[in-house]
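Feature request disguised as a bug: please show the residue count (568) next to RagB/SusD family nutrient uptake outer membrane protein in the output. Example input:
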Amino acid sequence: MKRKIFSLLFVTGLLTMNSCKDALDYTPKGVLSSSDLTSPTAVEGLVTAAYAAIGNGDMIGPIYSNWVYGSVRSDDAYKGGGGTGDVGEIDAIEHYNLVTPSINSFVTRTWQNLFKSISRCNVALRAVNSLSEASYPNKKTRLAELRFLRAHSYFTMKLLYKNIPIFDENASAEEILKVSNSLSNEESWNKIAADFQFAIDNLPSSQPELGRANKVAAQAYLAKLRLYQAYEQNETHQVVNINKTRLQEVVNLTQAVISSGKYSLSKDIADNFLAETENGSESIFAIQFTINDGTTSGRLNFEDGLNYPHGAPQYGCCGFHAPSQNLVNAHATDENGLPKFDTFNDSNIDLNTATVDPRLDHTVGIDGHPYKYDNTKPFSNSWVRDAGVYGNFHSMRAQQLASSSSYFKLGPFMGTAKNYDILRYDDVLLMQAEAYIELGQQASALPLINQVRKRASESTGRLKKADGTFASKYLVKEYTTTGWTQAYARKALQWERRMEFATEGPRFFDLVRWGIAEPTLNAYINKEKTRRTFLNTAKFTAGRDEYLPIPQAEITFTNGLYKQNPGY
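Example output, currently without the count:
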């Protein structure tokens, strides 16, 4: 049996934090603090609890699955479910209609859940610091792990809200209430980066237990942060400069990851989406989930629990997260096996005749195509909950088969013990490629992008129907040096990221980072609403909709210390 850090998960039961009016400074009754846990064994439990916290989101307060904030909010997917009124707050997010933030429990609950995870890190950091290295030989490593975890949560908050308060384990309860969210973009990025740098400087390259952060994971995460930081924004979120020094840091950090030899692309992209092949060569850092661990239902991912086919008898709920027609069309390839950058969305793809990128059938449930690699139960349009509103496509990457040992049904909702990848090697390759392109060294980006495309072209082994044929006509080829200008390379990189991470959530944040969210999403809406009339009132407003509003409850609690984001 693989040894995970959550073998000590029972400790986290003592540390559960409930929702409250003040997510920054709250001690639930009966919960132990760092002052109550002074032995090395107890402190180890606090560290484990901090790892657990990064997976402690929920369906209406997600903190790791970005199907709402990054996929539905982009051009990748529609909300789905039983019409626009079903979990209407996601419909508001899809329409960029969050101008009344006080009513948005999603936005508020995600903020609170992320700060709970930060609080657990700070509690554990204080406890670890109270011990000597003689009594606690793992002290330096655990401090570095906790700062990595804290940086992860702050990074997530930064992507979602931009203007956030940042404090460390040394801040008292009174001091926390005096920390504003008015740091400059550069200052806040650098504060988060300092935690990742500490992790790089103090973590080993390998850990004895699965799930623990290591030095290479910290290098990959700092590279991701510096890539976002390189695209410098003004106060209304416009990209005004691309910092070449930060891009070179991305190149150096990703090269350290690549040169380590610890990670590589899996042979089939499907390996990233199956519980049976989790923690493989491509997974750099993942939230670890468990099942059959002695608890009632295991430690499961329920954040994606609404997103199973509604009409399929093996599931039964709830039909959310429907891939958009735009995304399906984007998988079409031309006679050279390359994307149709400028014409892909002129008309709806004919899936019976068009050649497509194989990643389509790893991503989208399509009538008659194997669903989640099970050709004995092909996807059926009868499984779709509200085709009249959202069409017939269904998401698939985050779902697991009902026959999987990782699958668990709790009432109407589905959970899975499949780990949730935060950092993958494909992301590292494409981060480095992006940095090279923006540095004007696009020739160095070409083989990196082609590695990912080559793997995509070879990822067809699990896609055959029961009769041994393929449901789609696959054709993906690598780019050549001909015409590989910076502008073309940038377009190819942006396209590749969409295909490689489709419906996984990065899409919206990529568009914001590149400074193209407004033109891309309004062009998407203007075309898509001719296919899906529920989008008639949708409109992306530049200078506002790049980020979520600061929850009004938090502004009220801090007596106006927190300032609202522009436009809200």
